[in-house]
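To whoever is on call:

I kicked off a structure prediction for a single chain this morning and the downstream step that reads the tokens threw a length-mismatch warning. I double-checked the sequence; it's 309 residues and nothing unusual in it as far as I can see. Pasting both halves so you can look.
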Amino acid sequence: MRVAICINTCQRPGGLKRLLDGLNQLTFHHCETPDIKVIVVDNDSSGHACEFCAEICSEFKWILKCYVEPRRGIPFARNKAITCAIAENVDFVAFIDDDEVPEPNWLDELLYVQSSYNADVVWGRILPYFAHSIPDWLAKGQFFARPRYPTGYELKSAANNNTLIRAEVFRKQDKLLDERLALSGGSDWHFFMRSQRAGHKIVWADNALVHEWIPQSRTNLKWLLQRSYRIGITESFCEIDLKPSIIIKTQCIYKGIRRVIKGILSIPLSFMVGKHQGVKTLLYIYHSLGMLAGVAGKQYEEYKEIHTL
């Protein structure tokens, strides 16, 4: 079995080193050890990540290759990684982010679940890791906790931060990740929604764990509100773009307005319960406002600035 593990990175040498160290610890029990190629795409024209990869490749457990994608933006880098992976004639493509570290059985679990459920895409679990202290309200609200499902649960979409994709999925698509979303985010969600609607099966793998390093710059109310607003934009953009109709637009508008009103009415009581609950209500409102902004065709360039780790 041939697997390409794809990593996109941009000015995160510490994060990339942690991730590659983690990949060096991968073990396999459910399946035989696959033929693994690790493909790093440096989204920085300086190519410093490739220099680092060249330095460590002789001591690395797997085949390690690095390419430069000078065009700034997540879909540019991910599409480059996919193209390079497909050129290696692999059976599966796995994606993991440069701010994450996998458990040793991470890829083994993804492959096991894929085989068990004959899935085209497998999405794994992500656990937040804080290397610094965080406010009490943020810890109590668990704002960085991700959705969780039983293993094998079928999903309507996924994200690229912990996924295994059958290579054939990419070969059958008329296009890869949408480059219109270069700096706004959401191109992975858009791609997997499109894939699922084309008949590809997406399932959850609850034991395929990666740990996500959360920088201090994100552990504040401003970042949480901006992220919630952007996700709302992505939600309505994907719905409308993949099935453009006045009915879908009307549904998004109605849902957004209804949620904004509900959120505003809930503010006093939620803050009486506690700051964490009040913040959840604010995030609900910002997400709803983002949905309305998405209907209007607005974008929020969350990744315009480079965030190092």
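Update from on-call: the warning came from a stale cache, not from the record. Cleared it. Sanity check on the structure: The radius of gyration is 20 Å.
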